[in-house]
Input
Amino acid sequence: MKRYIKYYIYLAVALCLTGIYHALKQSRPAMNMLTDALVPLKRALSAVCGLAPFSVAELLIAAAILFSIYYVIASVVAIVKGREKLPIFFRRALGALCAVVTIYFGMCLMLGTTYYSDTFLDKSGLDAKGGTVDELYRITKLFAEKATEKGTLVSRDENGVFNEPLDKIFGNTRGLYFAAEKEFPFLSAPEREPKRLVSSRFFSYLNFTGFYFPFTAEANINIDCPRCFIPATIAHEMAHQRGVAAEQEANFAAITACVTSGKAEYEYSGWLLGYIYLSNELYARDYDRFKEVYYMLSEEVAADLKSNNEYWARYETKISEMSDQAYDNFLKDNGQEAGIQSYDEVVNLLLAYYGRR
Output
């Protein structure tokens, strides 16, 4: 029993800290204090990891997967060859449990705290209670008109599909949030270049266009998916870097940053993303008006929407369903009651913001 004492002590401390987090997470002042205290650490991590020309997060995830496979194989071999099979199994299992608890607590601390601290809505003062069908129609029409207008300013391929060079998109992020920061000063943060994922196709199978990794504070982008939404995805993940946790709020921050950026490819991507969410809601509430707005779109915008739908249709598999379910549970565990559907709630924010203009 003594040989396991270090594992017991480590687990006791880790579980105690995790328990304290869960006891305090409903206390907004406590979460605000923790979130503020961790900002310097997150910015230091993003500064250091930002020096690498590749995604440190992707490297760490790959290393963790490979090590896990090695650990399982090595454990099985050690148990089979060992004389004292049960003690070896117990020690290996304790080691794995310590690793899992450590990662979980790290996620709670580096990411979970932001879900329970002051939100974008709290800081901005927006009253996102939704709107009437008339308001929804008017703002959906606005986004359709703007997407059509800005869609003429971007490069396209022989099929009329958005085809801005990736180097241009990734190299044009400086100052992306400049205008948004003026209106919402709490979005201000050091600028970090987003990272391209080498394994982008793998993340398409998981139905991920990008992700923010809390242990490196990097914005990681799937570059295999339709290019017209890559600018908005970059802005979305950069919103998470700026402390915006809720997905609908990160969507709103991304759309706002894009459409006010003065960068053609980002403006178009922002208006197009907003149109999709708004039109989906209009489709559900007034199909005739949805059709009216849809037929206002230019051929180029329609081509981008068609290309996007065709791309993701190829990845509608059991793997993507399982990934969606896992992410849905993750979001619900972190206080987002709508789970994966919370992305769609950006509609209420768009109605609140553009409805007053």
Residues 2-116 form one domain. The longest strand covers residues 210-213. The beta strands are 195-196, 210-213, 218-221. Residues 85-116 form the longest helix (32 residues).
